[in-house]
Design goal:
The complex is a heterodimer of chains A (about 325) and B (about 525).
Chain A (H helix, E strand, L loop, with lengths): L1 H10 L2 H26 L7 H19 L2 H25 L4 H24 L4 E3 L8 E2 L8 H7 L2 E2 H19 L1 H11 L1 H6 L4 H25 L4 E3 L6 H11 L4 H21 L5 H4 L2 H30 L1
Antiparallel strand pairs in A: 1-4, 2-3
Helix pairs in contact in A: 2-6, 2-7, 2-8, 2-10, 2-11, 2-12, 3-4, 3-5, 3-10, 3-11, 4-10, 7-8, 8-10, 11-12, 11-14, 12-14
Chain B lengths: L4 E11 L4 E11 L3 E5 L6 H8 L7 E6 L2 E2 L5 H7 L1 E4 L11 H6 L16 H15 L14 H14 L4 E5 L7 H16 L3 E6 L2 H7 L2 E6 L2 E7 L5 H9 L17 E11 L5 E11 L2 E6 L6 H8 L7 E6 L2 E2 L5 H6 L2 E4 L3 H5 L6 H6 L9 E2 L3 E2 L1 H14 L16 H12 L7 E5 L7 H16 L3 E5 L3 H7 L2 E6 L2 E6 L6 H7 L5 H7 L1
Parallel strand pairs in B: 3-8, 3-9, 6-7, 7-8, 13-20, 13-21, 16-19, 19-20
Antiparallel strand pairs in B: 1-2, 1-4, 4-5, 9-10, 11-12, 11-14, 14-15, 17-18, 21-22
The chains are: A mainly alpha (about 325), B alpha/beta (about 525).
């Protein structure tokens, strides 16, 4: 019994929740980006590729300029370009967004490996010295409170920026004129055009925001804790972020909570590796994705039925 | 130019790749006038108005709005010049409130907090002011998706007024409205006229032109066929101007027919797609050689009734007999074999396969016949071709032959394909016909009406469901009003008035109708 308890506490302790916050961050960032394109009526499944490219450019930028800050700046610039590139095909040329998304993911996998090998001559993973990682932020008074300190203090700066962004995105989407136009562009682009507002411009802006946030998510992945780039390191987190957007119905707060849930499963998988074979534990976040999406689908079915019943009674 | 001219269009020519949509049209519209533009489908009405609204750049010609010449053709420029367009398909965001829709594009911002946040209270205030100014009642905080069509249209009008429109273009505004909603709309239009607004109304319906407009422009095949003061016109004069030759408005001859019950509906109860009762304990008998018209506001069970009879939707209770044989639980295919044909309400979604060719669409339902399929396996293209061409010519379809996809035809010609197919099943005794002429022009409409009456004269039993009350009156031998899934009253079209039928469409029981009459 005591053996079991000991094992239990090696998994379920403060570290688990700290890991949750850490692993959730890239999913939150990508999810925040993706909800902009989702509101603008673009189905963007290319977030994973955007993340991967973001992770790569952040490491490369850091390596060449010897500064994590420049790595982030480069990732943002590439994010803007990726967003414009995606928008060009989907909005201007009206290609199928699904196919462009798939193409972007495949392209990202190939180009990062190709550039990694040609630029650095390294195969597999390209580590940077730990000192080049993102700075952590320590909040002065917090270190006096035990658990809170471990959870919320001394995280990488992007984690705090990410929390701030959740609130900013919520305000932008629901409380600003831009947010209104964004949602209008997704629901009825013709309506916007008829009053002289270009829905395409709004869609481009959403695509660019998505590109930036996905690349930031990638930057956090490669610079946040590990300070290295490894091939295909996004590991389908972009798709998990997509699941969060669906589960959270594109509401930034709900997407954040959904991402925390996935982050928890991810962290759980990592910590269970000490007890259960790693091959099995790595399934956990993906299995959770499927499970949660099924629940979301069932719920939306029930809800639409309910609201229709209500409508009919009126 | 004197300054009482609102819109002056000179020599407007719009050329699309192969066709001349507008051919040298010149007209001027006075301030404070209700100006109607009529014409058949494809006559160029909407194109002309799209030029005015800045959505199309004319190939040739110039436009002057309220005294200033238009230099750039864009929606923004047109709005600035004072043009507002109320589209046939509403340009509203369903999930937003009325106020949010009205301020979209010029959202008020909260002055505090750096002026970046949307100010919902100011939006509501703005909307309330607008409502008060024009007397157009709408709840500012209601979500658009919860409003009826009539109210949604008001929101569209308010939206245009909020942008400062002096000239309002209404594109087929009554197509979706009930008679009483149409009356309300006309009141609004007159009120706007009093306030000095100019109203341009595009329509098909001639009696509406006669009722509301001051002047009329008739377009025919892209050309201006004439501009007249409404008071110098009659409906039949207008119709012949539209078509280009005299139209016979006499009713199509009706033969005396022997009447024996063919389609018998007993205590029928049907639920709709959401599982709610749509048809409630309905009884109806349709005799041979008679057309029974179902009048009603859309959404009172018309679709479900047609689907239940044709086997597309199961009945919860009750039974349907065709020539004495129960067809309630039969498959659509079996029901067709027993002698029932169906013209569905939506020709594009259920009536046709848009990508398939004309001959394929005409063949459907007969593809297993020995004459068309060798051993029911291999289609005999020569025989099918010959047959399709016959139907194609007999039903006067205008298109580029039977091998092109149905989707490339105009609405009227598409409908002729549906009617042609359904009316060429030999042993059919009963027809369920829904919205046969929705969105069609006068010539196509008359053609289809004639076909329907011919079938009646041949002794078929016909159930006609239509949202167009004129059509119901013109074709039916009996009119039944459908309200909330029940038949509320029965009328003889020769003696009943439209008002009475219209009232019965909106009330529960026969007594209420009688009290009011």
């Amino acid at each position: 019994m005591s053996e079991f308890l000991a094992a239990f506490f090696t998994v379920f302790n403060v570290m688990l929740f700290q890991n949750t916050l850490r692993t959730a961050t890239p999913i939150v960032l990508a999810g925040l980006g993706g909800l902009f394109t989702d509101h603008a009526g673009i189905m963007n499944i290319g977030m994973d590729g955007m993340m991967l490219i973001g992770a790569f450019t952040a490491v490369m930028g850091t390596y060449y300029f010897q500064s994590a800050f420049m790595g982030i700046v480069l990732a943002i610039v590439v994010g803007v370009l990726l967003g414009l590139f995606f928008g060009l095909f989907v909005i201007k040329f009206k290609s199928d967004e699904f196919i462009i998304g798939v193409a972007l993911n495949i392209f990202a996998g190939g180009i990062t490996i190709f550039l990694l090998r040609t630029l650095t001559g390294v195969k597999g993973a390209f580590p940077l010295p730990k000192s080049l990682g993102l700075p952590t932020v320590s909040i002065p008074l917090l270190d006096k409170i035990p658990i809170i300190n471990e959870l919320f203090n001394n995280n990488s700066i992007l984690v705090y920026i990410c929390w701030l962004l959740v609130i900013i995105c919520y305000l932008v989407v629901y409380k600003t004129p831009y947010g209104f136009r964004l949602r209008a562009a997704g629901e009825h682009p013709q309506a916007l055009r008829s009053i002289g507002v270009s829905p395409d411009f709004i869609k481009y802006s959403a695509s660019v925001i998505c590109g930036i946030l996905c690349c930031l998510a990638g930057a956090h992945l490669s610079l946040g804790y590990l300070t290295q780039f490894s091939e295909n390191m996004s590991a389908s987190r972009g798709f998990i972020a997509f699941a969060c957007i669906i589960f959270g119905r594109s509401n930034p707060i709900k997407v954040f909570l959904a991402a925390l849930l996935f982050g928890f499963f991810d962290a759980l998988g990592l910590r269970l590796q000490n007890i259960i074979p790693a091959n099995l534990t790595l399934i956990i976040p993906y299995a959770a994705t499927i499970f949660v999406l099924v629940i979301a689908a069932l719920q939306s079915k029930r809800k639409s039925k309910l609201s229709e019943l209500k409508l009919n009674k009126v | 130019m004197s300054n009482d001219i609102a819109v002056n269009m000179k020599n407007i020519t719009v050329r699309f790749v192969e066709t001349l949509a507008n051919d040298d049209i010149s007209l001027s519209i006075k301030k404070g006038e209700i100006f109607a533009i009529v014409g058949e489908n494809g006559a160029g009405k909407t194109t002309l108005m799209n030029v005015l609204a800045g959505q199309i750049q004319p190939t040739l010609g110039s436009v002057e709005i309220l005294g200033s010449t238009v230099t750039t053709f864009s929606p923004t420029a047109a709005i600035k010049a004072g043009i507002g367009m109320v589209h046939q398909h509403f340009m509203l965001i369903d999930s937003f409130t009325v106020a949010q829709n009205i301020v979209l594009g010029h959202e008020p911002k909260k002055p505090a907090k750096f002026g970046i946040f949307f100010d919902n209270k100011a939006a509501v205030r703005f909307t309330e002011d607008l409502i008060r100014e024009y007397g157009l009642e709408v709840p500012p905080n209601a979500r658009v998706r919860d409003l009826g069509v009539g109210l949604q249209q008001r929101v569209e009008i308010l939206k245009a007024l909020a942008l400062g429109s002096k000239v309002l273009i209404l594109d087929e505004p009554t197509a979706v409205l009930t008679p009483s909603e149409t009356d309300e709309l006309f009141k609004i239009i007159r009120k706007l006229k009093e306030k000095g607004h100019t109203i341009i109304i595009i329509t098909h319906k001639l009696y509406e032109v006669m009722e509301i407009s001051d002047r009329v422009a008739v377009l025919r095949a892209g050309k201006l066929a004439g501009i007249e003061e409404t008071k110098n016109l009659s409906e039949s004069k207008l119709a012949s101007m539209m078509v280009g030759h005299e139209l016979s408005f006499e009713s199509i001859p009706r033969d005396e027919t022997v009447k024996t019950p063919v389609l018998d509906i007993k205590n029928l109860t049907v639920s709709n797609a959401r599982g709610l009762i749509a048809i409630n304990d309905l009884n109806l008998t349709i005799n041979s050689g008679e057309i029974v018209g179902i009048a009603g506001v859309e959404g009172n069970g018309q679709s479900e009734l047609a689907q239940a009879i044709t086997g597309l939707r199961p009945a919860l209770k009750g039974s349907i007999y065709l020539n004495g044989i129960e067809i309630t639980k039969q498959s659509p295919e079996k029901i067709r074999k027993l002698g029932l044909a169906h013209i569905p309400e939506d020709r594009i979604k259920t009536g046709l396969s848009k990508q398939a060719s004309i001959w394929e669409n005409l063949l459907v339902g007969k593809q297993r016949r020995r004459e068309f399929a060798w051993l029911k396996l291999h289609l005999r293209r020569d025989k099918i071709s010959k047959y399709s061409k016959e139907v194609y010519n007999q039903f006067d379809v205008r298109g580029a032959g039977i091998h092109i996809p149905v989707g490339s035809l105009s609405g009227g010609n598409m409908q002729k394909i549906v009617v042609g197919r359904e009316f060429s099943f030999e042993n059919t005794r009963a027809y369920v016909i829904s919205q046969p002429t929705r969105g069609l022009d006068i010539a196509a409409m008359q053609f289809i009406h004639k076909q329907i009456i011919n079938k009646r004269n041949e002794g078929a039993a016909i159930l006609l469901i239509s949202a167009d009350l004129d059509e119901i009156f013109m074709l039916s031998d009996r009119i039944c009003t459908l309200f909330e899934g029940k038949i509320t009253a029965e009328f003889d079209p020769k003696t009943a008035s439209k008002e009475k039928v219209g009232l019965a469409m909106l009330t529960h029981s026969k007594e209420e109708v009688c009290e009011n009459s």
